[in-house]
Structures are given as structure tokens and as C-alpha cells.
Amino acid sequence: MKPKAVIFDIDGTLLDSVDLHAQAWIEAFEHFGYRIPFEKVRPQIGKGGDQLMPAFISQEELKKIGHDLEQYRGELFKRKYLPEVRPFPRVRDLLLKIKENGQRIALASSGKEDEVDEYKRIAHIDDLVDTDTSADDADRSKPAPDIFEAAIRRLTPLTPAEMIVVGDTVYDVEAARKARLHTVGLLCGGSSADALHRGGCVAIYADCAALFMKYETSPLAH
Asked: Comparing C-alpha atoms, which of 127, 132, 131, 95 is closest to residue 113?
């Protein structure tokens, strides 16, 4: 049965933004006295700040500076890095194809609500998205299932069995699995095919362009 709704992650899935997020976190950590190399931060992108910061900072330090650090990172990203974000090829074409086939579209991001609104504009898809959820709709960000569970509620009366997720990280796959959703994986965010397979993806494609070209034979259509 064709899924009645497709839920997309954004960073690394629709937008080429993962390296930019990593750089913003590195700069924010350094501002607060922590020097953390790119190769350690980059694999953590896909989590929200509540899940990412504890990978590098003790709980004691988080209580002191966690809020200020995350706020600083957010403002820095919007000011310095957001203007550099670009969509991956054929993102709009893929979403148009989904809409033409009568499926609903939701976005589910670990980013903040105002970031998601700007992302829709950058990707030229704001007229195609039926609903979206962000870290502001959840107590915990990915890999916790909260954001996907919020998307499921927004897509009611559809059930999880009638939905499918498209994401680029093992955090998307884990969060989706906890919410009883299957995931199609994309490699454009930097995760390996092996990691996505082991995470539980039902299919893997290079990017949105490849998924668009193979839509008719993909889990999005069957």
C-alpha cells in the first residue's frame, strides 16, 4: 500500500547544511572555552542541542552554561551560517511528485521553529508542506521519538503504518523506529550506507534527486 504521508527530516536530507551546523557548534563551544574538533562534532549533527551538548560537556557544566551556549549557537547560526544554506538538487521536484500522488508531506526537524520556517523558504517548498514539527514541539530532540510523535499527531487520523520517514542520519532512523515508523535513508548528509542499513532503513538512495528518479519503485510509492 502506498504511504499516505511522507515525513522529511530537513538538515542533511533536504538542505546541505550539516557542515555549517557543525561549524556553528564548534565556534559556540570555543566561545565558552571548549575546543572541540570538527571530526568529533560532525557525527553528532542530527541531534538537537539537548542531546548534542552532553556528548562534550558534563552535566554540572550544562547546568551552568547549557542554556546560554545553545542560545548563542542558534543566534550565531542564523547570523553567520544560515545565508550559506542551499537545498540539495531536485528537492522541490520530489515533493511535487509526492503531492501529485495524493500524499501528505510533513517536516520533522531537531531545529527550532523559526529555523524550520526559513528552511522551507530556502528549499522553495513552503507551499507544498502540509505540516511541520520542530524541537519546540518536543521535550527531547532526536534520537528520542518526540518530534516524530508530534508529526504523527499532526497527521491524524492517519496511523504510523500509513506514513514513512525520509532522513539522513542514524538519529532519524532510531527516532522513527521508536515512533513505529519506517525510514528511507539518504546519503547526502554524510552517513554511510552501512550505518543506515544497520540502523534499520528499508531503502537507501544517494539524495532527493535519486529518490525522485526512482520514486515509482521506492517505498514512497509502495
From this structure: 132
